[in-house]
Amino acid sequence: MSGLPAPTAPVRAAGPAPNPDTINTLRAAVLVLGRRLRYQTADGDISATEGAVLGRLCREGALTPGDLARGEHVQPPSMSRIIERLEQRGLVTRRPHPEDRRQVLIERTPEGVAFAERSTAVRTEWLTRQFDRLSPPDQQALTRAADALRRLSTLS
Amino acid sequence: MSGLPAPTAPVRAAGPAPNPDTINTLRAAVLVLGRRLRYQTADGDISATEGAVLGRLCREGALTPGDLARGEHVQPPSMSRIIERLEQRGLVTRRPHPEDRRQVLIERTPEGVAFAERSTAVRTEWLTRQFDRLSPPDQQALTRAADALRRLSTLS
DNA sequence: TATTGTTATACTCTATAACTATA
DNA sequence: TATAGTTATAGAGTATAACAATA
Predict the structure, then answer these.
(1) What is the pTM of this model?
(2) Residue spans of chain B under pLDDT 70
(3) What is the DSSP-derived secondary structure letter of residue B137?
(4) Cβ of B61 less than 7 A from strand D
(5) Taking every annotated instance into account, which residue ranges of this chain make up the domain HTH marR-type (chains A, B) (predicted)?
């Protein structure tokens, strides 16, 4: 009657099982908030993922397309297009990898640094306003969980 | 040199300003995790947003397209298409609104309930596995922040 | 043969604008 | 005139498959 496979039994390590309600609340909230963050863009701004890549290059220095794809959890062809668009706007440049001629190093330009600062400020503003409207306990809970959420998002 | 407007000064209520690093960590994590959740689908499954709509109909009963669009923070035409696809698969039905003939009530079918249960289980499984790999303090921080994140995602 | 990256292609999600029907 | 919903259209984001270059 439908093509969806039955769920398999999850392989679990020791420890109490996380509450499924917690997991589903997290999932639903991340989906909605992610969509809102992705579509909340100012005129002339780059996309959310482009911004994330540019920000990473500003923080971490030159990286290869493969590094960036793994860091942002997108497929290599997607990263190729992101880099292409950033390059067309003069926000990043490429240079050959010194040791492996298959690879390329992507680097932010000075314009890229300036752009990233303004873009991040604009994007942060909206979320900050939302955050401000939460109760103090909610704000505190989120402040304490931010790094955990980042680690959750980047697990292989 | 670029089309991005300068950020305006945020209008803030009382209280300490949230740490911009916290906000940006949250933003980056939600974007990456949202993308991964959206693209992590099993064969024959519905999309993440379709699943969220179906789940809401299962929890809350019959709702209008407008209610659903506001609840999931998508535009009305987007919700129209989501409903259309769910209807084509026999997971929801429509019936006239008893008091206002402009409106429509969308309702889950029995097949929709069964499908939602399996789909949610499959989607929850992946996130549960990831969650399990976090340290206990990280798990605790996220458990305590889940409802706050939901409220953050649904603020008008 | 394996790895890195790109090109070609296609699909999904979502948005905005314009329209219809009802209030 | 305002509201609820749909249709038409378009664009952005991402994926998979196939290819080229290098290790």
Answers:
(1) 0.90
(2) 1-16
(3) H
(4) no
(5) 19-151
Q: Please state, rounded to an integer, the average pLDDT across all residues of chain A.
A: 91
Considering only CB atoms, B142 lies closest to which of A32, A89, A152, namely: A152
Dihedral angle, C-alpha A114, A115, A121, A126, nearest 10 ° = 180
Which of B119, B128, B135 would best serve as a mutation to test chain A binding (most A beta carbons within 10 A)? Answer: B128
Cα–Cα distance, B63 to B106 (Å, whole number): 5
- The CA distances from residue A152 to A25, A125, B54, B129, in Å, are 15, 24, 26, 10
Q: What share of chain A is helix, strand, coil (3-state, %, to 5)?
A: 60, 5, 30
Where do we find the tokens 């549960």? B128
- Supply φ then ψ for residue A48, to 5 degrees: -60, -45
Could you tell me the domains of chain A? 45-137 (1.10.10.10)
What is the spatial distance between Cα A92 and Cα A75, in angstroms, rounded to a whole number? 19
Token pair in block for residue A60: 């971490």
Contact between residue A44 and residue B5 where contact means Cβ atoms under 8 Å apart? yes
Burial of B107 (0-12, 13-18, 19+ CB in 10 A): middle
Residue A10's pLDDT is 46
